[in-house]
């Protein structure tokens, strides 16, 4: 197999001071990428700041002969997002890839939701993805080869999880961001995908520092590397990965049931099995495709 080398491409990794982000940054650098290692260095709940985690990852990369710069700005603000991208432009004059990995957790059941905590979670995850991706997207539009953006979603957003309403909502919001960016970036050669990693990190309270551990972050890194590479085969997709397992997730639409005239709640209930039957499901990739499906149903028969 031909090695996936980055040949000096510039890749930003947020939240790269430890865990998954650190694994991503190291694998990218070892393949020749020039890496912006971003990490505010706060706690798992997003409190405080510490420059040492990002700086230490940069030291490892440089000791191995790679190129990297550290950045300590917060993804949670527009100014921070711009500064992170500017760090890449100042150092190397371009941005070829972004992996939006930074995250915090402040879990609380919905009935006991602290709205300040919820806003902080949404600011880091959803707005963090927007704050970093937007200036990177603009920079990538000037690249002859476009670029790649990887947004970090979660099984909690795709499927739900007790106590993670704000986190799950933010993570599913990133899927919506990804799908729209895929459409807007296509003509400029920008590919955008979402990754739902499963790994032991400080956020999950079961850190797996041993690379051979079942849920070691290193076992997720291969797909993050592939999605950030110029030969990335996907665009607008969602992937779940962990423990050496990789899977594509998708949004499906059943064939459904239609009654253009005189439909009632009662007739809908009577045909509910047809509405929910997954046989022959479709995978629309845009709102336009959904409209086309509906328009076909409205055609005279």
UniProtKB/TrEMBL annotation:
The lineage of its organism: Bacteria, Pseudomonadati, Pseudomonadota, Alphaproteobacteria, Hyphomonadales. It comes from the Bacteria. SMART domains: PKS_KR (SM00822). This is Putative oxidoreductase. Keywords: Oxidoreductase. Belongs to the short-chain dehydrogenases/reductases (SDR) family. Residues 9-201 form the Ketoreductase domain. GO terms for molecular function: oxidoreductase activity.
